[in-house]
Amino acid sequence: MTLVGFEAWARLAGDSPTSRTEWAAVVAAWGEPHRRYHDLRHLAAVLGLVGELAAAATDPDAVRLAAWYHDVVYDPRRGDNEQVSAERARAGLRGLVPPERVEEVARLVLLTAGHAPAPDDANGAVLCDADLAVLAGPPEAYAAYASAVREEYGHLSDAEFTAGRTAVLEHLLALPALYRLPAVAAEWTPRARANLAAELSLLQRRASPGSQGPPQRHGPPASS
After folding, report:
1. Overall fold of domain 6-205
2. Mind listing the UniProt keywords for this protein, alphabetically (predicted)?
């Protein structure tokens, strides 16, 4: 996939031995075997969409780098993946890009924990909209995404997963706006809300009356 190849990376972080080492480490992280949705295909998809939406950003290269790092750490058993990914970005990009861009990348990575950028946050809007684009896919594509997320949380019982995933879906449906960019919001929002509502309805029908939420140490089933 050329979107995740070294040439694409080098346009952002330069071509040096350190840069090559960091790119290889980032790609290896995205290729971990436990990933079923949050993998290199997801990274390529987000990078592609960021490229399409980049004109709306104030620092498109920072958004692209944030896409590279937004799920670079992804362990379904923990609840601080975004925090650790942001720290990973700070460490990995040090000396490769200006310090102020490093901090912007880390800020954007943290933003993907809740996908609620401020109204004037153009960079955050581009990254979050690209990351949540999967929610607006055709029903069959959305079903494949939801199934892949369930596989990533195979360590949870059905009751635990249902409780955690339900909370995520309810959070997304309660956002003032799922998408912030006018270029995509009008088209994507109805489809995404329909998909989310359909999955939520399915989970509620499956839930047993006494279901309890997953233990705190696991973290919630991912939203994107």
Report:
1. Catalytic domain of cyclic nucleotide phosphodiesterase 4b2b (1.10.1300)
2. Hydrolase
